[in-house]
């Protein structure tokens, strides 16, 4: 057999085996993985989202803005939620976003990330981690970029903080296999008005493709201009619970740690 033909044949076999391995990937022994994340530390997290999760025995990640008045007023409730297994993730101290980008006219100068120094952005993230540790007693957690922004003047302010978090959630949508996940920019689907059928449809895609699916919520039943109805949210949670034998549902801190260990193991 011609050497070139033989080499092409070998490569095709290897690629086929790799593709099959991806299609049959297991997540902690299950067909796919789902993470439920909730941003901004608002009242409906405690009033609607956490009770709904607790009612079906599922755990979520709540990305906390350190200066949120809901943190100060309801600290004991956040602490109790963490004790029940929900993650309190870091969403910075003030939720700054880059006002120079299109559609950011709602930002005030004080919340304009482009006016921050890199050091200030890093300090505010570390201050928030200290605050969260004071609430939940934990030293390990994940991070979420406000508005998905991670640079100031072209400088990646998060890079020096990478080892301080198990992973960081971005805002780009997508389903991914564990080897495809960038733990410094984990993909997710932001939900804003979509119904239960849309969300359960995403879960079915993840089941079929054996991939990671991350949901990004803000308001649940109100409380934010980015919202999901109570009915749609409940339909998703009950679907996940009904298929718990096939779906690994975990907070982001646990999911990111699992992916990191799997990626490191693959390199050995």
Automatic annotation (TrEMBL):
Stored InterPro entries: Glyco_hydro/deAcase_b/a-brl, NODB_dom, Polysacch_Deacetylase
Organism: Paludibacter jiangxiensis
Annotated CDD domains: CE4_GLA_like_6s (cd10967)
Protein name (Swiss-Prot/TrEMBL): Sialate O-acetylesterase
Record carries keyword Signal: yes
Residue stretches making up the NodB homology domain: 32-268
Signal sequence extent: 1-21
GO BP terms, alphabetized: carbohydrate metabolic process
Gene3D superfamilies reported for this sequence: Glycoside hydrolase/deacetylase (3.20.20.370)
Molecular function as annotated in GO: hydrolase activity, acting on carbon-nitrogen (but not peptide) bonds
Keywords, in A-Z order: Signal
